[in-house]
């Protein structure tokens, strides 16, 4: 009877140990699931942050490309403007040189015309003197210059 009682007590203790083991297992499983949830929460937050940062990077890359395109266009426009201004400057320099040459030619022509007028007057005077001398000589010989 004592052995039966002892066997029954041991079976009860074994049953209690199994229940305790089962309770501990369930509690540990719950704690594990809670820890997994807690660990997953920051991981999900990090995933959201990573996705957000990736989107920001993509946006920044697009903005950077647009900025680069705008800068390239601005540089091309600047180069065109510089080329146009250099062309205008060259044209103005040519016009200035041509104007200076034209002034030099006009002053040279005016000087030449003045000298020609002076020479013409001189030769008219010389011609008049020669004509007068010839008329006088013809009259010395009794000839009329109008008859000749």
UniProtKB/TrEMBL annotation:
Role, per record: Component of the nexin-dynein regulatory complex (N-DRC), a key regulator of ciliary/flagellar motility which maintains the alignment and integrity of the distal axoneme and regulates microtubule sliding in motile axonemes.
Show the InterPro entries listed in the entry.
DRC12-like
Assigned protein family: Belongs to the DRC12 family.
Organism listed in the record: Syrrhaptes paradoxus (Pallas's sandgrouse)
UniProt gene name: Ccdc153
Stated name of the protein: Dynein regulatory complex protein 12
Compartments it resides in: Cytoplasm, Cytoskeleton, Flagellum axoneme
Q: Which PANTHER family match?
A: COILED-COIL DOMAIN-CONTAINING PROTEIN 153 (PTHR28656:SF1)
Q: Which UniProt keywords apply?
A: Cell projection, Cilium, Coiled coil, Cytoplasm, Cytoskeleton, Flagellum
UniProt feature coiled coil, ranges? 7-95
* Assembly information from the UniProt record: Component of the nexin-dynein regulatory complex (N-DRC).
